[in-house]
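DM from R.C. (forwarded with permission)

"hey, sorry to bug you on a friday — could you get me a structure for this? deadline for the figure draft is monday and I only need the backbone to look sensible"
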Amino acid sequence: MSRKKLYLLLLVGLMLLAPVLMPAFKTQLAMLMLMITFALTWDIMGGQMGYNSFGNIVFFGTGMYVTAVIQRDLFFTAEEYESLAGSLNIINGTDYLTGLFLGLGVSVVVCVILAAILGAGILKLRGHYFAICTLGLGIAAAEIAAGIDYIGAGSGLVPPTFPHEDLGDRGYFFYYYFLTLAAATFTVLSWLYKGQFGLAINAIRDDEDKAEAMGIHTTRYKTLAWCISAFFLALAGGALGNMVGFIDPTEVAFAGATFGVWMVLMAILGGKGTIWGPVIGATVFHIMQELFWTYLFGWQRVALGILVISIVVFFPEGIMGFIRDRWPELLGHKVDLKSSKKGSTP
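My reply, with the result:
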């Protein structure tokens, strides 16, 4: 067995045993898996294709609301549910899983269609125009959701209570769900990047005009990339709404100031345009954030701001870029020591 496969097996084993070894941190570990999914899905557009999108939060929030509404309307009327919301044992395990996974399936369809519709128009924009437009999408989505009474408007929406008696510990359930989602996202993207899709979006990043001249349907690939992000973000949003237990339009579902920005920062910190960079960046960022909230309470946002500045100043190419420059052999790059010494001779 090669060393690479051995390390990968050890990592998988550690992830599977993590909540057992650290039961007090099950929720934090589940959030870590969510952060990894965030960073990986943003990097499809921002790293691999060079389109800095702030609109991915739209698919995350839409998936959250669609899942919760399906769970509610599958077994209750809106009036019945409003009177029962927050009550224990409102739904049994079988009905809960039925509503959850049906809601996740519907949310995927809705978000992918939404990404295709938005992408067909917005993805014709480039550079700062595209970034600003997608930023406006997230803000608009939060305001629209806050004005729709059917989904709770500004008061928010409460998903069905997790049935502990039937399904066991909620922390374990959602940790393994988000672990599976993060692993699936990583595996699918690794496969896609090795094929024609990866070559096409990298060509768009390097020079979109030349890519078009070579016959690549750039708008089609850009839209497809956004649809792939929407697919995984819908699955993430639907589950997080259930784990948190309350959906607020601006602070949870369409939280552009937190989740929307963190997607970008984590990918940049780890090294955008790489498959492992977003994973490393999300891990480092989440651990640092938890430490700030634990030991610097009251100053945690100041510390987080300093961390953001440090990322931009000291890690412009990310952790993976730093390692590639200092120790390229660790990433499998061959270094000709003789030529490098000759090049350094005055």
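R.C.: lifesaver. Residues 29-295 form one domain.
me: no worries. The two ends are 44 Å apart (CA to CA).
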